[in-house]
């Protein structure tokens, strides 16, 4: 089940990580690498921390934190090696990180909600006796 969720989140990220009106293939190769790196780092961090702590809020913080850290330090590393620090590149990395993390977070929340509904609703889907407008004689 976890592998299926991970696969679905990767497919969803790949289909939604577009920069404004440009498609992924029309982006320069450097920007594509930043998107892939941000999505990979955050996705791995989210699902690993989810497996360790089983708390989606902690996983959200860990994944976003690692995505931001990776974006910043990669550009800082470039600056130390004679290249320029590019806020645009850091933005691409962090944007993919945010999209991946929020998608993963939503998958976990919806999955838990569905499991809770299945365990709580052994009877009918709607119990008309519990509706506040129902009157009994």
Describe this structure in words.
Mean pLDDT is 81; it is low at 131-135. 72% of the residues lie in helices and 0% in strands. It is an all-alpha fold and 137 residues long. It is built from 4 helices and no strands. The chain has one domain (2-130).
Q: Concise description?
A:
The protein is mostly helical and 137 residues long.
Give me the secondary-structure topology.
Elements (H helix, E strand, L loop, with lengths): L1 H15 L12 H25 L2 H25 L6 H34 L17
Features:
disordered C terminus; single chain; 72% helix; mainly alpha; 4 helices; elongated; 137 residues
Radius of gyration (CA) equals 20 Å
N-to-C SSE string, H for helix and E for strand: HHHH
Number of domains: 1
Distance between the termini: 48 Å
Secondary structure: helix percent: over 70%
State the low-pLDDT regions, or none.
131-135
The class by helix and strand makeup works out as mainly alpha
Shape, principal axes of CA atoms: elongated
- Strand coverage percent: under 5%
**Residue-averaged pLDDT:** 81
Number of strands: 0
Please summarize the sheet with the most strands.
none
Number of helices: 4
